[in-house]
Each structure stands twice: as C-alpha cells, then as structure tokens.
C-alpha cells in the first residue's frame, strides 16, 4: 500500500519561527458535504495554545519524507500520470489553502511488519501505474492545518480494491503502530461519507505523535484519512486540523475535498 501522507512531524520548518504546534481533527464523517468551506472553522471556545509539544524544527533537517518525492513520475503510465495530476486538488481548489511543497509521485510499497511498524519493502505497490499526491496548508496565528489529496491509477480493479483492503487489515491488526519516528494510536475505521460515483469508501481515524528537534514529541493529534475507489482509480484525502479551530467545521473540508475529487473522475 502507499503511505498515508508525508510525515507531518517532519514538515513544519515554515512554522519554526512562529513556534507553532502540530495538531489534527478526528470527527465522524456521515455524508457528502458541501463545497470546500471558506475557512477551516472558527476558533474553539476557550481554546488557547499551551505551547506543549511544539515542533521547533523538523527533526530530520527539513527533508519532506522517506517516500520518493518530486515532479518526475515514477509510475509506468505517463498518460495516467497526467490524468492523476489533474485529479489531485490544487491549492486553488481548496480555496483558502496554500501549496505546501512539491507533488509526490512515488509508487513505493509500504507494509505493516510483525512489530506493527509501517515500512517500505523495496518494491512498488502492486498494479500501481501512476500516483500523484499534492499537499496544502492553512496557516493560522497559533497553528496550521495540513491536508493532502492523492489520486492513484491501478492496472486492475482487484489491485485498486487491495489498496483499500490493505489499510483495513493494517488497522485491524495494528491499531497502534509506528511509521519511522511517528507513532499512531487507536487507529480504527470511521464512518464513511457518501462519495458520488464511488464503489467503495474507507475512512481511517486515530491519533498521532511526531518527534521534535528538541528531543520531545508533539501532543497526540487526531487525524482523518478518506479513501474512495471507482473502478481502477483510488482517490484519498488526509486532513490534520488546527486544534484551536472547530473540528466539526474542519471535517467539512475533508468531505468537500473527496467530493471534488470524485466530481473529476
């Protein structure tokens, strides 16, 4: 299976000067939402930054990911690669988000090993002929919301189905697992939204902590990850939301994003 997203704990260099914290949202998704909201939500009543778990600088010196990243396609089908690039949402399509680094076109396969560690196995994802992941962020005074969309083209329906199934199986077997220095706990299947045209939808939710350069770790962060499949195409949305913003409103951004992806397939 592909990676969930580039590691958020290693992608906060731009926030270092402001001393911002990492955070996320995790709410049940019930149905297809409206168009992307004009903001990630209003500040939660009574919320105030504590400064705990602040990531002063990426622990790896600013490298974005352990997964291959860049503008050069690593899939085998360049026409499909171009199509996936049109499916993945741009910052403009998110409306109030800004681009956050280069697209990721890697096809490396990741597996959950016996110790519940998410690791690359040195192969490409079976049947994955093209993939484009695109990253955005929304900066706020005290924190930032991170998000990404991805579009994957598989050679067969069976291969596309396996991509979703691999996440289901990993969540069931290892609700607590690691991805490098990132730690995920309480990972489970969430309630899936209605995605127009989708033949299959899976939602993953849980909490994550990330390392900081001062040797500490961020506080646990909620996240939501939506995958939807139509035929041989799988689209994905990952959303990690500023904790000082209304999570119920912020989840609308994830629903709107998956609906926008589905409208283009």
From TrEMBL:
Keywords of this entry: Signal
Region (Disordered): 34-79, 167-189
Segment forming the signal sequence: 1-23
Compositional bias per record (Low complexity), positions renumbered to this chain: 34-51
Bias kind Basic and acidic residues: ranges: 167-185
Recorded superkingdom: Bacteria
Name recorded for this polypeptide: PknH-like protein
């Amino acid at each position: 299976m592909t990676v969930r997203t580039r590691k958020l704990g290693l992608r906060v260099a731009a926030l270092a000067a402001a001393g911002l914290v990492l955070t996320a949202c995790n709410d049940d998704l019930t149905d297809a939402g409206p168009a992307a909201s004009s903001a990630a939500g209003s500040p939660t009543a009574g919320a105030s930054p504590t400064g705990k778990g602040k990531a002063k600088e990426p622990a790896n010196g600013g490298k974005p990911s352990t997964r291959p990243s860049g503008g050069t396609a690593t899939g085998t089908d360049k026409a499909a690669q171009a199509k996936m690039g049109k499916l993945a949402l741009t910052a403009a399509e998110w409306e109030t988000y800004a681009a956050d680094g280069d697209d990721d076109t890697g096809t490396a396969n990741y597996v959950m090993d016996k110790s519940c560690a998410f690791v690359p196995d040195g192969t490409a994802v079976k049947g994955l002929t093209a993939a484009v992941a695109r990253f955005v962020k929304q900066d706020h005074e005290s924190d930032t919301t991170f998000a990404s969309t991805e579009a994957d083209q598989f050679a067969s329906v069976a291969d596309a189905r396996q991509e979703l199934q691999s996440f289901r199986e990993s969540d069931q077997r290892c609700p607590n697992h690691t991805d490098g220095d990132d730690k995920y706990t309480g990972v489970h299947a969430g309630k899936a939204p209605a995605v127009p045209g989708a033949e299959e939808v899976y939602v993953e939710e849980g909490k994550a902590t990330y390392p900081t350069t001062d040797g500490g770790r961020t506080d646990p962060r909620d996240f939501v990850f939506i995958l939807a499949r139509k035929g041989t195409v799988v689209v994905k949305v990952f959303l990690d939301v500023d904790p000082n913003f209304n999570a119920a409103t912020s989840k609308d951004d994830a629903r709107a994003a998956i609906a926008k992806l589905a409208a283009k397939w």
